[in-house]
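Inverse folding, one chain.
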């Protein structure tokens, strides 16, 4: 080990309560899930200010996954690969492909759901996909009472993509709705690599259904990995006014509104081209939905 470095202390809790106690007593220690993001940070090693580690891998409760009637419930330590294996019987092809686009098989075997949702300052594919699907997350607050609550994934972040519970909560489970009695469609597109090129990449998720000649119940999420997490009820309401055929004028109206919203949502110094790409991506998707509808 290089001179001046010390080994971090590693806590190995066996229960969620123990992990919370470890964190309360060692505020600077960090939860460690798969470690793929933590270890990829510049200056991670060697670093004289290594933070202590609370390893979550020994907490069995966090590795459970099961399918109930209307949702799939997965612990925070379920890996992306395990989610795909379970989901291959349940998820639509588009959803399965969106999840399998994350990193490489090595990363998917190591990276966990909790780690994907809890990176403090970057928003990757999983946040966008799960927010679009109206998934919810159970979090346990880092406090003496260690209260837990269920929060929509969309409410875990601010508009600039910051995780609102960094260091103040442990994410324990997520629930992904799987009941498709209302014929919801799901679309996901990613431009560029969110990890390798976060200042140009765009991730988009859209869930909707079609009824009475128009788009209904839309839920749109757009993520610019290092600068924006965009979901807006007002914008979803605007999408739900779209009826077929979706003309160029209607698309223009929607895209102008999205551009305005994104410009006021993003972090400073965001690449304007990235916003432009997000707007164009939505246009392409609306054109696709229109063509598919008209083609019957
Ligand atoms: C080479 C490479 C390529 C990648 N490519 C892609 C890609 O194409 N698309 C994409 O979307 N992502 C990509 N990623 C990012 C990847 O999704 C994340 O690195 C990964 O999901 C993080 O999961 P982890 O379990 O390793 O988390 P960790 O690195 O262990 O933790 C990440 C953060 O979350 C916190 N944390 C972890 N678990 C919890 C919890 N339960 N509660 C509270 N906080 C917690 C940790 O303290 C840390 O701050 C890539 C990563 C790498 C290294």
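Residues assigned per position:
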């Amino acid at each position: 080990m290089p001179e001046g470095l010390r080994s971090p202390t590693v806590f190995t809790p066996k229960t969620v309560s123990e992990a919370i106690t470890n964190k309360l007593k060692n505020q600077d220690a960090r939860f460690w899930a798969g470690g793929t993001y933590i270890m990829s940070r510049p200056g991670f090693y060697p670093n004289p200010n290594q933070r202590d580690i609370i390893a979550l891998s020994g907490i069995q409760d966090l590795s459970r996954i099961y399918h109930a009637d209307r949702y799939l419930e997965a612990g925070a330590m379920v890996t992306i690969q395990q989610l795909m294996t379970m989901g291959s019987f349940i998820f639509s092809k588009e959803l399965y492909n969106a999840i399998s686009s994350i990193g490489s098989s090595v990363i998917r075997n190591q990276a966990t759901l909790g780690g994907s949702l809890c990176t403090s300052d970057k928003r990757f594919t999983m946040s966008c996909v799960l927010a679009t699907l109206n998934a919810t997350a159970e979090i346990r607050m880092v406090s003496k009472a260690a209260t837990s609550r269920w929060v929509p994934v969309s409410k875990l972040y601010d508009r600039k993509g910051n995780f609102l519970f960094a260091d103040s909560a442990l994410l324990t489970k997520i629930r992904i709705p799987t009941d498709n009695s209302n014929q919801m469609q799901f679309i996901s597109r990613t431009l560029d690599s969110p990890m390798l090129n976060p200042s140009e990449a765009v991730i988009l998720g859209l869930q909707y259904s079609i009824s009475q000649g128009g788009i209904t119940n839309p839920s749109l999420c757009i993520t610019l990995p290092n600068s924006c997490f965009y979901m807006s009820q007002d914008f979803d309401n605007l999408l739900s006014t779209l009826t077929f055929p979706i003309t160029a004028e209607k698309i223009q109206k929607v895209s102008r509104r999205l551009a305005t919203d994104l410009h006021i949502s993003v972090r400073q110094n965001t690449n304007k081209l990235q916003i432009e790409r997000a707007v164009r991506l939505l246009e392409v998707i609306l054109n696709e939905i229109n063509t598919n509808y008209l083609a019957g």
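The longest helix spans residues 272-294. Residues 30-38, 40, 56, 76, 102-103, 107, 110-112, 114-116, 118-120, 124-125, 170-171, 193-195 surround flavin-adenine dinucleotide (CB under 6 Å).
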